[in-house]
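Example record

One chain of 229 residues, shown exactly as stored in the release files.
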Amino acid sequence: MRILVVEDEARLAELVSDRLKKEKYTVDISNDGEDGMYNALTDIYDLIILDIMLPNVSGIEILKNIRKNNIKAKVIMLTAKGELDDKLLGFELGTDDYLTKPFHIDELVARVNVQLRKKSNDTNTIEFGDIYLDLKKCNLINKNTNDSINIINKEFQLLEYFLNNPNQVLSKELIYDKVWGMDSDIISNNLEAYLSFIRKKLKIIDSKVSIKSARNLGYKMEYNNEEIK
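Predicted structure tokens for this chain:
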């Protein structure tokens, strides 16, 4: 899962990032509010650790915009203040948890794990057309025939992203950011290779779901349920 840390104290941000990476999370850092706002609104993160006091744009403004744009990422807010009013405002605007500085890094990690466990428990499958993806067993299954195939790693992340955004054209840049990270140097040929693997697996289970290229725009997942007469 991918986490964004929006924190202007560079040393603290790196400490949090390094610790979360040991927990096998993918982590990006923004050191000011403007950059944090931009990254948060990409909607590629499962959880955002958000400091309230930030240069240029406050954490409160970022939180407002996240929820205004219907971004469902979990949010844990950080602040040097401990006043009840600050916490109440954060919860009112849609934060999921709150941690007051200074804090122990293990407590933050525990809170992150709890929030992401809640998110993963919301649903164990994603469905579209005649298929569903079992998120726990990493199996892709044809609902009509029960034929299944295992799908893991980047293929799994790619397919999960498409299944969460069916019938939408997804640009290459957005796919790179979501699956490989904003600083990734992945090239187009790698993406095409992974998509080819997914297409083959869809054929193996005899699915009518397809991922098509939209010329100069990106890719789109579609379901063709028309019967041949």
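Notes: The mean pLDDT is 87.
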